[in-house]
Structure formats: C-alpha cells, structure tokens
Amino acid sequence: MQPTKTKSIIIKKEGYRLSKPLQMVGMAKVLKNHIVHQELYTNISGKNYAHVEGWQFAGGLLGMFPRVVTVENLSTGSETKWKADVEIVNLKTGEIVSRGFAVCSNKESKKKSFDEYAVLSMAQTRAIGKAYRNCIGWVMKLAGYETTPSEEMPKPETTMRAPTANTPVEEKPVDATDYVCHGITKSGCGTEITKQEFDYSKKLYGKPLCREHQKEAKPLTK
Q: What's the rounded Cα separation, in Å, for the pair 5 and 89?
C-alpha cells in the first residue's frame, strides 16, 4: 500500500506500530514537522515541550485515542481542585494501552484566576498528556521534544526590567528542533537544514530557510 503524501508530510495509510522501531523513526519526523508547522510546543528554560495536541497527533498516528474515565472534585474551602483519570485506548482492538491521572488547582501560581470549569478542563488535559507520555514518551523524545507535556511544566516567573544602553540582547537558545525551514509564509515547510544553512539564512534573511526558499526570499536591507 502506497503512503499518502500531503504538504511534504508522509503518513502511512495502515498506521504506525510501536513494535517497529524503523517505523517509529519515520513517524518521529512526521510528528516533528506537524508540531513545528502548527507551533504546538513551548520553549521553557531552553527546552522544547510539546502541547497536548501534539501528543494527541502522535497517538492518532498509532491508532490510540484518549477516553476520560472519571473526574473527581477535590475542592475544599477556598481551593478549587479537580482530579481526572484518562485511559488511552487502541481504536482497532479496544484494548487499554495506558492510563494517566492528573490534578489541577486554583492554588497553583498560574491558575489563581481560573474559573472552576477551566480547572476541571486543565485536569483532563494534563491527564491526557500523562497517559500518552506513559506509553509513547520515547517517541516524542525521538522527535526532539521533552517527554513531559508542556501543560505539566510550571512556567518560570519572569521579571520585566527596563532596558538600558548597556543591557545585552539575549538570543533565544537554538534547539535541534529549530534546524528546520520556516518557509516564506508563517506555516513554513519543515524541511530539515544544517547548522551552517541555519546560521547563513538567519544572517541574510532573518529566518531559517532551506535552499529552495532562500531562492524566493529577499535579503534583509542593511
């Protein structure tokens, strides 16, 4: 059976199988391209963490889908707190292949303004990510992302300081997953490029581009 090719992303019609390591290498490239195109990741302290939508895409390629089993209200007094239990199910066989639990509370530093429905929703989102992580965390790592879903990571506190003439400009750390073409348009093309191509293109065009897109781009004016 021939694979279907759409926008330079190749997806096997029969699906990928965890028991086939070489298939997982190919799937990791598909996963990486999708996450880059859709901007489904967050850089935290120099490391890239995929959003739960990226984990769901990975699971979908393997025929695995999340099912919320239970939600439990753990609220007490002024604290709004919910716990969620999620299963990952094989669509073809109905087999439960993984399970994840997670909680969310408005006592968390970044959740103080959350309404109750948002706290409940985040508990489910975290549980979905955790359940996928338990079975395909290594596949996400293979794609170049951390094995913890971004929703589980605490966002670092930032303190704004007024810039001065002597304040150095800090550049965003370059991760291995950044060495892809961002294309002429916002969606980019996701083609992998070398560090040399990355540095050259950033300097001349202001963004990482593959050789084909460099032909179409206009150099930055000095």
A: 27
